[in-house]
Specification:
Elements lengths: L13 E2 L2 H9 L7 E5 L5 H6 L6 E5 L3 H10 L7 E2 L16 E6 L5 H10 L4 E9 H8 L9 H7 L2 E9 L4 E2 L6 E8 L9 H12 L6 H4 L12 H4 L8 H15 L2
Parallel strand pairs: 2-3, 2-5, 3-4, 5-6
Antiparallel strand pairs: 1-8, 6-9, 7-9
Helix pairs in contact: 7-10
Length: about 260
């Protein structure tokens, strides 16, 4: 099986550049006991990862053709090749802590993969992934940027994010229509937020969904009635607020709900 047909509905763009693959693998820094590769495709990353000293290495692939190829190319890995949908996988069945997630992520589900990582933040200590460049920049950017948004805040609440490098279209087959970027997430020391976490997510989402409005006006989208905000928040727009300020904003809303 020399070639696998990339499937558009799975968002597949197979990486074929050896140097880029090595740089992605080298992005793993934390020496996690368990590493899970998402969407290995033709196994360009996989073949490099199997040479690393990883205690438990798994690949998760939904494409039957890719699974058959990997079983043939890397028979020693066969017991750890999981023919499953990563988004539906219970990661705690693989490991309960000290996990890293890596991959040339399918762009059509890359944000969902990040939300899956967030849901499993007590298990996943690190993630290194290839994304559409704009998405990678959005996750990594700081307050004050027009790219700063929902993903930026929710991920940076729990992870330190580094933009590692950009990738040109020519290293893929077929080439995607967009440029790509690789980022690394490393779990920070936050174990819990000082506000209600569900309300925090709602505040972040409702304010960014109306990002042209001031916080004072967009917060009305929560449907909570009149919420009185400190002056420092009322006239700001969401892209100006850091994670810590969003926590503070959420506490303001939460306190008024409890009155």
């Amino acid at each position: 099986m020399d070639n696998i047909r990339a499937k558009k509905h799975l968002g597949q763009h197979f990486l074929h550049d050896d140097n880029t693959a090595q740089k992605i693998v080298d992005g793993l820094k934390s020496n996690c006991k368990t590493v899970v590769e998402v969407g290995p495709g033709m196994g360009v990353l996989t073949k490099k990862l199997v040479t690393k000293e990883i205690e438990n290495f798994f690949v998760v692939e939904i494409d039957k053709e890719s699974v058959a190829y990997l079983n043939e190319a890397l028979p020693e890995l066969s017991p750890n090749i999981l023919e499953k949908d990563f988004l539906k996988l219970d990661l705690s069945e693989i490991a309960t802590s000290n996990m890293a997630v890596i991959g040339n992520f399918p762009y059509n589900i890359s944000s969902q993969i990040m939300f899956k990582v967030l849901e499993n933040r007590n298990i996943v200590d690190e993630a290194v992934g290839m994304f559409q460049k704009e998405v990678a920049q959005r996750i990594a950017c700081k307050p004050g940027s027009k790219e700063y948004g929902i993903l930026s805040v929710l991920i940076q609440a729990w992870y330190n994010v580094e933009y590692l490098f950009s990738v040109s279209r020519g290293v893929f087959a077929p080439p995607p229509k967009v440029e790509s970027g690789v980022i690394r997430l490393t779990r920070n020391e936050v174990n819990s937020l000082s506000c209600d976490e569900d309300l925090f997510k709602k505040v972040v989402k409702v304010t960014f969904n109306q990002r042209r409005k001031t916080i004072h006006n967009s917060i009305k989208g929560l449907g909570l009635g009149t919420v009185v905000l400190p002056e420092k928040f009322a006239k700001e727009r969401p892209e100006q607020l850091s994670v810590a300020q969003f926590v503070e904003l959420t506490l303001c809303v939460q306190e008024q709900l409890e009155i």
